[in-house]
Amino acid sequence: MAAVCLLLLLLPLISAQTYHWGPCPSPPVQPGFNLQQYLGRWYEIERLPASFERGKCIEANYAVRSDGTIQVLNSGFHKDKVRTAEGTAIVLDPREAAKLGVGFSYFAPYGTYWVLTTDYTSMSVVYSCTDVLRLFHIDYAWILGRSRFLPQETVRHAKELLVKEGIDIFRMKATDQTGCKDN
């Protein structure tokens, strides 16, 4: 009964997400991930739907804080103004540095942020998954670029990687990066 109640409470959030039955998949991540090279500004090129993301000109900035954690500063333009969200990322296991935990609230556990592939200078593919009682999972995926626009062949390659790892990209959509200024 508790699982049914939880499911009913989550339905409004789930409708704006990409969800599937069963536990989260575990795709391989970037081997030898170098966090220092990954830091800096990334622009969102495409993403799976996420209830916490709306608008255009979406970008993320990553920087190391004095305490060793990573500042995550997401921004985008929505309803005629720049909206920002600041969070914290940590490397969960130094042996798999491409598997980060990201949180935007002190009261919520870290969510997964797995860098599946990156060349550090032009593109990155990131995957995240939230497992709900191992009954179903909610997928998030992003194709990021160091510039606001990537060549179509690069985007196609990123999508092929996600599909190869069993991640459903049917609902993936392009982020509007036209007419943007740095946030």
List its traits:
183 residues; alpha+beta; Lipocalin; 3 helices; 16% helix; disordered N terminus
Write structural notes for this entry.
The protein is an alpha+beta fold. It is 16% helix and 42% strand. It is built from three helices and ten strands. Strand 5 and strand 6 form a beta hairpin. The longest helix has 13 residues. The radius of gyration is 16 Å and the shape is globular.
Chain-wise SSE layout:
Layout: H1 2-14, E1 18-21, H2 35-38, E2 40-47, E3 56-64, E4 70-78, E5 81-91, E6 99-103, E7 111-118, E8 123-132, E9 136-145, H3 152-164, E10 173-174
Antiparallel strand pairs: 1-9, 2-3, 2-9, 2-10, 3-4, 4-5, 5-6, 6-7, 7-8, 8-9
* Rg over alpha carbons: 16 Å
The CATH superfamily appears as: Calycin beta-barrel core domain
**How would you describe the shape?**
globular
Strand line-up across the major sheet: 2-3-4-5-6-7-8-9
Q: What fold name stands as the CATH topology?
A: Lipocalin
Proportion of strand residues: 35-45%
Mean pLDDT, nearest integer? Answer: 88
Our count of domains comes out at 1
Number of helices: 3
What low-confidence regions span 5 or more consecutive residues with pLDDT below 50?
1-15
CATH 2nd-level architecture: Beta Barrel
- Helix fraction, binned, reads 10-25%
